[in-house]
Amino acid sequence: MTSTPPPTTEAAEFDASTAFADCAESGEFAGKTALVTGAARGIGKETVTLLHTRGARVVALDARPEVALLAEELPGVVTMTGDVTAEETASRAVGAAVDAFGGLDILVNNAGRTLNKPVTQTTAQDWDSVMDVNARGAFLFAREAFRAMEGRGGGAIVSTGSYASTVGLPEGAAYSASKGALAQLTKVLALEGGPLGIRANLVAAGVVETDFLGTFRPDSRAYLASFAHVHPLGRVAQPREIAEVLCFLASPRSAFVTGAILPADGGFTAA
């Protein structure tokens, strides 16, 4: 896909602390239990916070030990560490939700890995490591969630995808393929889950300003700035903005939405 970037303009500074000031901190998730992967920081942490604030009982999982800090910041949140690519981790995490809170109603597949390499420089190990987290991990958690939700009468599975689910990104062979796989998995989950009352949707996020970028690019600040002007909104996203969309798709407000690939990319894929 080719597109002509819009004229460069000075975008208004986005302030998440005030932009969402009037959002109702309702109890829309009261009585619901949620499991969030990749929960220690960025989009995952914001999602845990929103779910907890709005009444959910939350199990937060991450490979990083710092996820334990969420239990101190958000009393009642159960934290766990583990590798999302391991079957044992998925089984243990869903089991923790059932044991601690009696069941599972919401799964947020947020854990992810990226890679920025030309095809010729992408090794088989690179490919496997990205596909394992982004596709295999999401599958394992969705499978275990299905088993728990089926006996509960339904639930919602929401995954953090990317605009790379639908368009190709240079130097993103493994990442784009993994997010494309996640989008197709979401559609299958929706088809199989419908009769069971289980909805499945994906948020195709654009570039988000998190420290996640720093894990693969030393020039992450400059990289972010380079993307701002190709978004019609003139900026990249804040983690809270993506978390809000994830929570919408997990909530009763989207009760008739399933199998959707919902762009939250500042208009990047509109052209």
Automatic annotation (TrEMBL):
**Which stretch is the leader sequence?**
none
Q: Which family does this protein fall into?
A: Belongs to the short-chain dehydrogenases/reductases (SDR) family.
Among the Pfam families in the record, one is adh_short_C2
Q: What organism is the protein native to?
A: Streptomyces varsoviensis
**Mind telling me what this protein is named?**
Short-chain dehydrogenase
* Keyword Oxidoreductase appears in the UniProt entry: yes
Keywords, comma-separated and alphabetical: Oxidoreductase
